């Protein structure tokens, strides 16, 4: 073929392995043909003929648009062509302020090629960073961060001071990515004394955290490393304080300081060196890595944690102290945690901590639940802990609380929740009786309904279904999701009614409809016919609800679900079908629904999806949707899937990079080389 006059010609050349034809096409009079041919040469074997053609494109300065030179740089990077490094560096240096803005592809190519020459060239630009403009500096620094050359540390440190204080963060991030301990001293100084009004301290601390553990603590003669981290440990930014706490916990001196923070805060809660979030960060680290803080006689440390659990005025500190005490003191934490169950602000967190103890104090929890001299908060916390600990022997006591009309509603509700977590069969009947008793408080009935859904006893289904139509909002809101606990066709049909009614003018609330779709997904195979029927009104549903419906269909492995997704993705618009009931009218195809379905099919990527994915490629959906479909077909990898991708590429009027990548994948699968 003498030349290419269309995208189809280029695709044919690529699939024929016609290197010479593509090289000629880079000199076409049509700009788009030149660019697309250049892009395709990046998938070649890098023969001398190809490299020469790409060099010619890279040096061409008479282009109105930078696309040709851009793609030439990208292609040389893909080929790892080391001979291109000097030219790429020249462009990066000499043309950094031109309108073509080729810094992105040239830097990317240099990173892809790598090697000593590319590294030396990029490192050599460090002395120009302070005078760089726009994204040029950012891209050079990002390239060094990706290559991680140790030889860049010294010039970056020199450049750092020229950047302070306003623009130093990017240099600091690059030093952190390189991870060389020689940068630690500078990073420590920045962490200790940040510029006001910047995020420099947090960036410096994050860079220190990125250093290898083996190089910690870094060499720093004076002051000690730990002292330089005191300031960031109490920084107003909680994330900075957290990371600094992690760094301090790596050494014995650092851990001593962290205990000192707790000690000082215990004696003076308003001390400026121990703000509440810094104290919480210490407790959180103890909870996360209790083994780091092991001591021969940890009694004093246990006492500190107990003090903050009992006395701190800040709930976040008390929560963190509870978790730390449970992880660090373990069995010795029981008494203080049981007492803390009475703290209504943190009772749920304390209950979870108690449940996670190696040996939860089950007898004491039962005593708290059944005793008469305890607060409601303590009893409620004990109830939650028994449920979270999976203590099935507590079921009789919980049932007794549930049936006690004189007990506070909050405590009975907690008992219902705990029974739902334990799922004892004998709890189903009393929970059902409570749920349908309209004389009981609505919040209590709502908790009972939720527990019934978790237990899933078939004979309680009518009660849950009736509650789904309750006029009480809390009961209704819990009953609809609870229907998902009954894997039966009747439950699926009821949930389908809630979804379909959401499309009506006076339908159900959006939250209820969303819960119904989620519950249908939980039911499993019995819900498939309902999901299929609901697909018929997908266009009438809100976009958010339609997305959830598509996700529920996509989760079903049956071929019928795949077929419905395919019909949804490709059906013509059915705007005149509004108001139809499930199963009536044509499947609709609004753009949001079609795109959600196309995405679901792309993620599914099974052989049954080939035909619907191919149909997606023939639609007018955005390039991102079509790219996902192409990648899914490539993952399927059959000859049929590849043929559909090729047909799509042949019909394209413009090639994106993902088109070219797809052609490379198919060519490799068929043993077609683009070059010797």
Automatic annotation (TrEMBL):
Domain of life according to the entry: Bacteria
Organism of provenance: Streptomyces flavofungini
Pfam families documented for this protein: HEAT_2
Record region (Disordered): 572-591
Name of the molecule in the record: HEAT repeat domain-containing protein
């Amino acid at each position: 073929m003498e030349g290419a006059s269309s995208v189809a010609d280029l695709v044919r050349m690529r699939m024929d392995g016609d290197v010479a034809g593509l090289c000629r096409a880079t000199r076409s009079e049509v700009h788009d043909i030149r660019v697309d041919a250049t892009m395709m040469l990046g998938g070649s074997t890098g023969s001398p003929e190809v490299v020469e053609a790409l060099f010619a494109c890279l040096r061409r300065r008479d282009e109105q648009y930078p696309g040709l030179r851009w793609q030439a740089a990208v292609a040389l990077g893909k080929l790892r062509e080391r001979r291109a490094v000097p030219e790429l560096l020249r462009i990066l240096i000499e043309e950094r302020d031109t309108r073509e803005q080729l810094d992105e592809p040239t830097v990317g190519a240099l990173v892809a090629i790598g090697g000593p020459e590319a590294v030396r060239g990029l490192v050599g630009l460090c002395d120009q960073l302070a005078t760089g403009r726009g994204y040029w500096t950012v891209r050079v620094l990002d390239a060094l961060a990706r290559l991680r050359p140790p030889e860049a540390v010294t010039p970056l440190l020199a450049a750092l001071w020229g950047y302070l204080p306003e623009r130093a963060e990017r240099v600091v991030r690059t030093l952190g990515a390189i991870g060389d301990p020689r940068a630690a001293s500078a990073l420590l100084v920045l962490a200790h004394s940040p510029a006001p009004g910047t995020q420099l301290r947090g960036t410096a601390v994050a860079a220190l955290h990125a250093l290898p553990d083996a190089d910690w603590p870094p060499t720093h003669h004076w002051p000690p490393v730990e002292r330089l981290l005191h300031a960031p440990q109490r920084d107003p930014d909680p994330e900075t304080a957290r990371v600094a706490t992690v760094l301090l916990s790596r050494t014995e001196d650092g851990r001593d300081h962290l205990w000192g923070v707790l000690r000082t805060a215990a004696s003076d809660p308003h001390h400026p060196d121990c703000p509440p979030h810094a104290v919480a960060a210490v407790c959180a680290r103890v909870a996360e890595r209790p083994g780091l803080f092991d001591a021969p006689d940890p009694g004093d440390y246990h006492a500190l944690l107990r003090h903050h659990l009992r006395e701190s005025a800040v709930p976040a500190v008390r929560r963190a102290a509870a978790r730390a005490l449970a992880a660090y003191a373990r069995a010795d934490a029981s008494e203080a945690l049981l007492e803390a169950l009475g703290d209504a602000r943190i009772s749920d967190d304390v209950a979870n901590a108690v449940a996670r103890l190696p040996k939860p104090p089950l007898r004491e929890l039962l005593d708290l639940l059944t005793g008469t001299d305890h607060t409601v908060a303590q009893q409620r916390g004990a109830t939650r802990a028994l449920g979270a600990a999976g203590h099935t022997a507590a079921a009789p006591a919980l049932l007794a609380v549930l049936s006690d009309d004189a007990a506070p509603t909050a405590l009975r509700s907690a008992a219902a929740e705990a029974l739902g977590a334990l799922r004892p069969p004998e709890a189903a009947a009393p929970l059902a009786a409570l749920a349908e008793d309209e004389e009981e408080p609505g919040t209590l009935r709502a908790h009972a309904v939720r527990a019934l859904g978790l237990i899933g006893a078939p004979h309680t289904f009518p009660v849950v279904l009736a509650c789904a139509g309750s006029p009480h909002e809390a009961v209704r809101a819990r009953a609809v999701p609870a229907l998902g606990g009954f894997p039966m066709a009747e439950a699926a049909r009821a949930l389908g009614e809630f979804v379909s009614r959401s499309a009506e003018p006076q339908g159900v609330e959006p939250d209820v409809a969303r819960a119904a779709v989620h519950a249908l997904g939980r039911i499993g195979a019995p819900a498939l016919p309902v999901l299929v029927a609901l697909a018929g009104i997908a266009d009438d549903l809100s976009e958010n609800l339609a997305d959830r419906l598509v996700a529920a269909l996509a989760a079903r492995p049956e071929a019928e679900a795949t077929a419905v997704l395919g019909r949804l993705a490709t059906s013509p618009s059915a705007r005149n079908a509004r108001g139809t009931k499930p199963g009536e009218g044509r499947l609709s195809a609004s753009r949001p629904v079609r795109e959600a379905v196309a995405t679901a099919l792309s993620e599914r990527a099974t052989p049954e999806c080939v035909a619907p994915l191919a149909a997606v490629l023939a639609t007018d959906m955005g390039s991102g949707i079509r790219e996902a479909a192409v990648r899914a077909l490539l993952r399927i990898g059959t000859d049929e899937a590849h043929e559909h991708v090729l047909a799509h590429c042949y019909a394209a009027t413009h090639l994106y990079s993902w088109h070219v990548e797809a052609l490379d994948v198919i060519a490799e699968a068929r043993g077609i080389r683009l070059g010797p």
